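Q: What would this chain look like folded?
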Amino acid sequence: MKLSTKGRYAVMAMVDLARHAQAKPVSLSDIAARQEISLSYLEQLFARLRRAGLVKSVRGPGGGYRLAHGSAETRVSEIILAVDEPISATRCTEMGATGCRADRSKCLTHDLWEELGNQIHAFLSSVTLLDVLERRLASRLSEAPGPAKSDSMAAAS
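A: My prediction, written as structure tokens:
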């Protein structure tokens, strides 16, 4: 599964906003320059983020954007979903209601990919902007349970 630039850039911009919006609103041109993202692309993303209630715009001189909620309350999954980025690893539509094969049945590996998508969504739902800012992801990943030994590996030991 590959996350498109839409989702990646939205998360990058929101982390930048969380880092720099302490005292005053942050302009999109400042975010664009720091993150090397097209200003017009950011404008499109922030329109979606604003509609989703994740950011607030401040008009006038010195205007820009602020987070609508604290960085500890803003989840990465919300950002990705706000810009219409599906978190799915299957090629089936609508949560598998319609299969990915020509006869509309599910492929043999459908359940595997659907569960992968569920795990990705669960992980991104557990990560906040504050986690990213404080670089708490490495410790979170190292605490995750490791892969279980297969029956053949367990029998060999």
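The first strand starts at residue 55 and ends at 58.
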